[in-house]
């Protein structure tokens, strides 16, 4: 007996006995496509640290753990790790079809029993949707269809129609009239819809049959008038819907449209028939819309260009920022301006190049350093816009000090230095005063003393006051005295020298000619022939040396020309 008891004790010790039970909390019934959540729970969590099991189900199961969870080879292991919840996880799935299904947890370890099964009955749900999504007549859907609206009226001009309808739920049954022959007047048809669950809706469709209407929406005439003057550029042609290339002068502000329809039953659509049209500058598009008796419409388009003689100049001719003139340059629209420390708000002055342009901007509060840009928008007469971007830099208090940089004397060159206090000016005869320019031009006070009726020896005092104090600069006037102009003396001297040179050349030429004449006479005497007749007595000829009188063109200091002895035989 003792041996048997010992054997049973050993057998019990070799078997794992778990104190807590595992269960599934799950709805017993569900519907197709409805989400089902099942909770896996322990009866208690004492003496339990880990639980594992396999999950089998007809549908894909999504595990949402509350304990630490690991899945390996189909085995789901849950570890407590400090959790106080008795729920290990939620198993979620969505049945896709109707039937009886089971959710099974098998091979359970760490809890009892070894396996747990939960039966779920899934039933199919039938739709109650008995609505239409559309109604069509001869393939054309009714425009104002609404599934909640049960009655419709339609007018047609054909004696045969095909009525069609489509259910919102594909499982619903639709009973439609189909093809029907019509008589002139109204006829009513019913369209019934039965849902999968048996619900029913009825739609009533009343169709009015009218004899076909005229579809002619053409024009008979189309004309444009400037007052009483017809615009000749518009020449209406049947079948032509667009008319271009019509130009009018800038002073034409209104045109009158005149038109008539080809069919007496056709009409003009409201606001698109004969009328007066105000023209904008540039291209204008005028629409004439004609509606036939049948309701069909057509547009006739007229394009008219009004000459635009307005200025497109959207530039500035003057820009002053807080008293600082800005030098405007062509095609430059962004400027940087530095203002003094005491300027706390922008103050902008502008003049547009064209008086008809409009200038818009907003002044801003200034902070030290760089400020947000001020945008100046210039809108020209023809609405051309140009933006000027002004970046204002407000100087610090120290940077704002104004000190003399330079003095210029208009039309005179001086080598200016701030510490050089005295300058000499060689004044022109026509000047009687000096004109000074001091840089910077703003913020410096200038006082001129003795600057009028200037003459040689005059002294002009320029008193300059800046943030560093007052300084006086002296300008000594030097002006040449009246007398003989040295330039005239030079001209007289060189003119006389030139005349003397010309006279000498003339005298030398005359002497040369006389000498040549004497040589020619001597050659004639030597050629006299010799005869046998006794020679006549030779008359004693006394050759006297005669001095020729001085001619009028002979100049004192130049020797006269004297004839040679025996120059001529008498």
Task: Tell me what the structure shows.
This protein has 570 residues and is mainly β. The chain folds into 5 domains: 18-123, Immunoglobulin-like, CATH 2.60.40; 132-209, Immunoglobulin-like (Sandwich), CATH 2.60.40; 219-306; 316-394, Immunoglobulin-like (Sandwich); 406-478, no CATH class. 9% of the residues lie in helices and 42% in strands. The protein has 2 helices and 40 strands. Strands 2-10-9-4-7-6 form a 6-stranded mixed sheet, with no helix packed on it. Strands 29, 31, 32, 33 and 34 form a 5-stranded mixed sheet that branches. Strands 1-3-8-5 form a 4-stranded antiparallel sheet, with no helix packed on it. The longest helix has 40 residues, at 486-525. The protein starts with a helix and ends in a 45-residue tail after the last helix.
What attributes characterize this protein structure?
elongated; 5 domains; 9% helix; 6-stranded mixed beta sheet; Immunoglobulin-like; 5-stranded mixed beta sheet; mainly beta
The domain count comes to 5
Q: Helix- and strand-based class? A: mainly beta
Gap between N and C termini, in Å?
214 Å
* Mean pLDDT metric: 85
- The CATH class assignment of the largest domain is Mainly Beta
| Rg measurement, Å | 62 Å
Strand order of the largest sheet: 2-10-9-4-7-6
Largest sheet: 6 strands, mixed
The CATH topology name of the largest domain reads Immunoglobulin-like
Quaternary state, please?
single chain
Question: What is the CATH architecture annotation of the largest domain?
Answer: Sandwich
Q: Total number of helical segments?
A: 2
Which range best describes the helical content: under 10%, 10-25%, 25-40%, 40-55%, 55-70% or over 70%?
under 10%
Spans of at least 5 consecutive residues with low confidence: 1-15, 524-570
């Amino acid at each position: 007996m003792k041996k048997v008891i010992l054997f049973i004790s050993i057998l019990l010790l070799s078997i794992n006995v778990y104190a807590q039970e595992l269960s599934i909390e799950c709805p017993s019934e569900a519907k197709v496509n409805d989400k089902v959540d099942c909770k896996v729970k322990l009866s208690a969590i004492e003496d339990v640290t880990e639980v594992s099991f396999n999950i089998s189900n007809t549908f894909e199961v999504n595990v949402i753990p509350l304990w630490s969870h690991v899945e390996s080879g189909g085995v789901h292991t849950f570890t407590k790790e400090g959790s106080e919840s008795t729920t290990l996880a939620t198993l979620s799935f969505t049945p896709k079809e109707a039937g009886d299904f089971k959710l099974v947890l098998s091979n359970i370890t760490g809890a009892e029993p070894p396996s747990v099964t939960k039966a779920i009955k899934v039933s199919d749900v039938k739709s109650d949707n008995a609505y239409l999504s559309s109604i069509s007549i001869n393939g054309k859907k009714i425009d104002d269809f609404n599934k909640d609206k049960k009655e419709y009226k339609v007018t047609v001009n054909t004696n045969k129609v095909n009525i069609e309808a489509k259910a919102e739920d594909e499982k619903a049954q639709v009973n439609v009239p189909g093809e029907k022959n019509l008589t002139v007047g109204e006829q009513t048809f019913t369209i019934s819809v039965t849902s999968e669950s048996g619900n029913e809706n009825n739609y009533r469709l009343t169709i009015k049959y009218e004899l076909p209407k005229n579809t002619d929406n053409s024009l008979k005439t189309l004309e444009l008038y400037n007052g009483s003057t017809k615009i000749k550029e518009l020449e209406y042609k049947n079948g032509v819907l667009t008319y271009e290339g019509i130009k009018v002068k800038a002073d034409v502000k209104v045109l009158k449209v005149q038109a008539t329809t080809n069919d007496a039953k056709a009409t003009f659509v409201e606001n698109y028939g004969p009328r007066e049209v105000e023209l904008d500058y540039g291209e204008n598009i005028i629409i004439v819309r004609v509606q036939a008796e049948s309701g069909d419409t057509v547009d006739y388009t007229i394009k008219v260009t009004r000459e635009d003689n307005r200025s497109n100049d959207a530039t500035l001719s003057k820009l002053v920022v807080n008293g600082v003139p800005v030098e405007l340059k062509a095609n430059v629209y962004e400027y940087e301006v530095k203002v003094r420390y005491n300027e706390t708000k922008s103050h902008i002055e502008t003049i547009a190049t064209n008086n008809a342009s409009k200038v818009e901007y907003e002044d801003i509060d200034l902070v030290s350093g760089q400020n947000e840009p001020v945008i100046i928008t210039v809108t020209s007469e023809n609405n051309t816009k140009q933006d000027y971007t002004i970046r204002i830099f407000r100087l610090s208090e120290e940077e704002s000090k104004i000190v003399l940089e330079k003095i210029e004397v208009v039309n005179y060159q001086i080598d200016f230095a701030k510490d050089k206090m005295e300058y000499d000016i060689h004044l022109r005869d026509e000047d009687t005063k000096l004109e000074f320019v001091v840089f910077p031009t703003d913020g410096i006070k200038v006082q001129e003393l003795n600057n009028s009726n200037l003459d040689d020896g005059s002294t002009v005092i320029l008193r300059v006051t800046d943030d560093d104090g007052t300084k006086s600069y002296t300008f000594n006037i030097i002006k040449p005295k009246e007398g003989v102009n040295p330039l005239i003396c030079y001209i007289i001297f060189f003119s006389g020298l030139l005349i003397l040179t010309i006279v000498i050349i003339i005298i030398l030429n005359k002497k040369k000619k006389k000498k040549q004449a004497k040589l020619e006479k001597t050659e004639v005497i030597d050629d006299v022939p010799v005869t046998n007749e006794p020679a006549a007595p030779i008359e004693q000829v006394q050759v006297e040396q005669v001095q020729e009188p001085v001619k009028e063109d002979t100049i004192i200091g130049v020797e006269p020309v004297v004839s040679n002895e025996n120059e001529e035989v008498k």
